[in-house]
Design brief:
371 residues; 7 helices; globular; 34% strand; 6-stranded antiparallel barrel
Length: 371
């Protein structure tokens, strides 16, 4: 077992420890309260926390370095977050995690091949190490770290000796964008990600348009939610959700039934998608119009009262997301059906702005977590 320790000066340790434990429980940690200590177990690592009069004593143990660093970082970041009304504590760890390091969920990927699927969709194949954690149909999304153009050598985000991220100068800071893993083979150390090529290209689209074998980017995650079991599956997506739909269709059991509706610009943007025989595939073409037709397509679907239980997964532009989410809450049977409807982008808004807007709305209670 590896171990690392810290004694963190705090005016009121319990005021930090109590919400810290409650928050980590929400992220699947197991918390055991003893007479003098709290014990937190998360993803194979264990932290023992003991409050004193003016400090919090922490010991983290794990069988591997990645798990040790992950829980160490979680403890450190949440101590800072919940010590808002106290002086910012200085955190110094001793033991098996000294010195700066990459975050435990961070991987460096190298481009191995570039494949043009349609005029506006490009598949980039990557090689990387220790990809097992990313091989999940329940968490399809990753954050890609795209280095600025012109750097002789990429600079990756690191964790400092306190377990917290080290700030990078703006000229070295990678752009961060969310994407879906389209295919992955951890044993071979390979994965593929599909990129939509936009006319008003952002960092992800620009990288995909210029990518060559040997180019490197960073990846962290995974996150989000994906496939769930059901008697019938319905997928609705535009181009941005197409990679996720393609991956989930290919992963469904052979006897799966349902429907996938995918909206693209035109026939040239259609792809061959592997799927069970019982999963119908319908393409919608926007043509010259700019408004999505996905919401109307959903509203036209029949919904038998006594039919099989359904899992609806949908991803689209924000305005369409709002209509689909409202429709799902109205039409789906709460006792039998489940859904996940997400907004992948918003017209006229950069991804950072859209993500910040969603966080603000969620914090204010305007957007509830999808069922």
């Amino acid at each position: 077992m590896l171990a690392t320790r810290a004694r963190i000066a705090l005016a009121d340790p319990l005021a930090v420890l109590t919400p810290l434990c409650a928050h980590l429980v929400e992220h699947d940690a197991i918390v055991e309260a003893g007479p003098e200590t709290m014990r937190i177990t998360l993803e194979g690592a264990t932290a023992t926390l003991k409050p004193h009069a003016d400090e919090l004593e922490v010991m983290v143990e794990a069988p591997g370095l990645a798990a040790l660093r992950a829980l160490r970082s979680a403890i450190a970041s949440h101590v800072i977050a919940f010590a808002q009304n106290q002086a910012r504590p200085e955190i110094r760890w001793s033991g098996d995690t000294t010195g700066p390091s990459l975050a435990p969920d961070f991987r460096i990927l190298a481009v191995t091949a570039v494949e043009t699927l349609t005029p506006h969709m490009r598949r980039i194949h990557f090689a990387g190490e220790a990809l097992d954690r990313f091989d999940s149909l329940g968490a399809l999304h990753v954050r890609l770290f795209i280095p600025p153009a012109g750097l002789a050598e990429p600079v990756w985000p690191m964790l400092g000796e306190d377990g917290l991220p080290i700030a990078l100068p703006s000229e070295q800071r990678p752009a961060i964008r969310k994407y879906t893993i389209r295919a992955i083979d951890p044993a071979a150390g390979t994965l593929a990600i599909d990129f939509v090529l936009h006319d008003d290209a952002g960092p992800g689209s620009t990288f995909a348009a210029k990518a060559r074998p040997g180019d490197r980017i960073g990846m962290a995650g995974p996150g989000g939610r994906g496939l769930r079991e059901a008697q019938r599956h319905i997928f609705l997506a535009d181009e941005t959700g197409l990679p996720a739909v393609g991956r989930m269709l290919a992963a469904l059991p052979a006897d799966a039934t349902g429907l996938a509706i995918v909206e693209v610009a035109g026939a040239a943007e259609e792809q061959a998608l592997a799927r069970p025989a019982g999963m119908a595939l319908r393409w919608l073409h926007r043509g010259a119009q700019t408004d999505s037709r996905l919401a109307e397509a959903f509203e036209e679907l029949s919904w038998p009262v006594d039919g099989p239980d359904v899992y609806l997964w949908a991803a689209a532009e924000h305005a369409t997301f709002l209509r689909l989410r409202a429709g799902a809450r109205t039409r789906l049977r709460p006792d039998r059906d489940r859904h996940l409807v997400v907004s992948y982008w918003r017209a006229g808004m950069a991804e950072e702005q859209h993500a910040a807007e969603k966080r603000t709305a969620a914090d204010s209670g305007k957007v509830t977590a999808p069922s």
